[in-house]
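Subject: sequence -> structure tokens, single chain

Hey, anyone have a minute? Need the predicted structure for the following. Not urgent.
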Amino acid sequence: MRINPFFFGAGVEIAERFAYCGIDSNLVTYLTGPLGQSTATAAENVNAWSGTASLLPLLGAFIADSFLGRYRTIILASLIYILGLGLLTFSVALPSLSISVCQPTDTSILCSSELQVLVFFFSLYLVAFGQGGHKPCVQAFGADQFDSQDPKECKAKSSFFNWWYFGLCSGTLIAFLILNYIQDNLSWVLGFGIPSIIMVVALVVFLRGATTYRYSVKRYEKSPFVRIGRVLVLAVRNRRTSSSAIAAQEEAHGNLPSESSYQFKFLNKALLAPDGSKERGKVCSIEEVEEAKAVLRLVPIWATSLVYAVVLAQSSTFFTKQGATMDRSITTSVKIPAASLQSFISLTIVLTIPIYDRIFVPLARAWTRKPAGITMLQRIGSGMFLSAISMVVAALVEMKRLKTAQEYGLVDNPKAMVPMSVWWLVPQYVMIGLSEMLTMVGLQEFFYDQVPNELRSIGVALYLSIFGVGSFLSSFLISTIENVTGRNGGEGWFPNNLNQAHIDCFYWLLAALGATELALYLYFANKYIYNRASRQIQS
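Reply:
Had a minute. Here:
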């Protein structure tokens, strides 16, 4: 019996997200706590690591699509992932191990601290490398389990992306609720060790299903990167070719899609050889030209999604630091870990995806006559709008927190709890969760669906790279603002004392950038031409 794609996602992906978010969600707390980094430095390090982890899938996808294939890449990446998690656990245990090894002198303590930091960051980026091969291939491999020639399975693929993200967020939610509590209240060693064990179990489960999977078969001998590269090279070399010659060649082929032919028309010059001959092998086929156009069409959508990624980066950095200063008491003896507040994002997604898939989509489908209810780009844009609103809400709540700290005379007392309930932060987390449910799932389906079949792993990697670049942009923004506002001995917007910070101003800036991005996105989305398969389905 062939494995069900949802079972595949609900098993392997839940385990991977549990492991990854067990590190990512509380990383800023570990850096500012046991490692003693400043708030700004820790936020930059978290963003740099998250950015690297989101960009490395481009390398992993290239290796999978060009050499190893998705199945073998998943296995190799999982082994690297497990090694990184094991070393991460070892690095956290180093201080306690060093007590029995090093003498209690300043020199030995300094030595063990440097060793801990070195091993910690090495293992952290090893996890990023493992995730870079695992993430794009697992999702593309899961979607490959649907037969695109079967009408029922083709229709179900859109729901697959909803339920895939449902499983992903379920793993994230478990990590927020369990691992963050263990890390804050019991042991960092145990908090990083449990994900290592979970990933080993996930790899065993994945290998047991090897005989039941569907594997994609290459249609061409040449790599898709080579084919697209040839189109670009020939188009440049034929840049002086007259438009009449190109028109004649298009007419000779006869089946060039009319709507697509007017977009990126300079690529049609690849239909002719540089020497004017039509010898086979020296010219590109129409299908190859269309592949190159499909990839280029993604660039404006990719670029106008970057600010959205910057907004999302704040949920694991400044949102967490905000919560750490507020009243997190449930009872007199129980407090909510600040990083666990991110569970409201996952909880929102887990609750709303079934409503979206089972209620909204059928209602919208009856109105619009589209299989998914609304188009992928409409779904993405709706989430972007909500992300900009979330920054407005976050700015207002932060202004309220700062006012409360001032009223109680806590501005110069960073360790004191601000007498304001942490539940004030819930609306901004919920808004982020709603935006993720719309935009993240939409981007996953869009970048998987709109690339050539043999570049599906690259398509998923391109989607992930949005958040990698977004994390780096967030780090760049924080660093630049800190340098500009902190010059001449000033405190700047991001001092270690959050009661003297101006994070509210940063949120207002992101809200303005989000609104600008949305306007640009709507312009390019309106101009976007879906590939032929998507146009047939949506019609």
